[in-house]
Amino acid sequence: MAEGESVSSSVSSEHFLVPQDQYLKAGIHIGTKFRTRYMEQFIYKTRPDGLSVLNLQKIDERIRIAINFLAQYSPEEILVVSRRENGWKSVKMFSKVTGIRIIAGRYLPGILTNPQLEKYTEMKIILVTDAWPDRNVINDAMKVGIPVVALCDTNNQSNNIDLVVPCNNKGKKSLGLLFWIIAREYLKKRGTIKEDSDFKPSLEDFTDE
After folding, report:
1. pTM of the entire structure?
2. pLDDT of res. 131
3. Under a CB-based contact definition with an 8 Å cutoff, are residues 177 and 57 in contact?
């Protein structure tokens, strides 16, 4: 794949959260053969094999917005949900590093809405790895007015989502890189660490082989 395939030539990789090559290596920009009307605004091109390619600049911009949004909340106010197994290692490490609560696996409907449930919890913001398999938590969040940040591939709908982060939300390497970046930048924004070099976990710690 050509290096410039997923980003306009006017954008310098120096302005990205990580080097452009690192984004490309993780396949964060590789979409699916399906594209929804909402996600078209984030698509750079469609390859001859039918796969849509997301625009790296827009991916990076939305990751930054998501981080700024999340950084307004303390760890105990945030819930991250990943029904998709490819995201489990990433979100578990994310939780270990940031102290943010996660649900890796099935979300039990009512956790956010039914005080009588043993696992009932009050949260102020939700982050999901895929709007479709994680739709139960999105529906509950909507009922109680909790904003939702969702990682969305080219085939996702944007219903009931407050902030869409376009990306490959199915690949292990892509999800690992995403949560590694978000963890590092969240801790910097919250003042827990000062510099990138203060962030000790490696990308491999977040990535399932």
Report:
1. 0.92
2. 93
3. no
Q: Do 55 and 42 touch, CB atoms closer than 8 A?
A: yes
Dihedral of CA atoms 122, 170, 67, 201 in degrees, nearest 10, equals 100
More confident of the two residues 167 and 209: 167
Sorted by where each starts, the structural domains of the chain and their CATH numbers stand as: 15-206 (3.40.50.10490)
pLDDT digits (tens, 9 = 90+) for 127-144: 999 999 999 999 999 999
- The CA distance from 176 to 205, in Å, is 8
30 — phi, psi (to 5°)? -85, 115
For residue 61, what is the enclosing H or E element? helix 56-70
Cα 128 to chain centroid distance, Å, stands at 7
Q: What are phi and psi of 13, to 5 degrees?
A: -65, -15
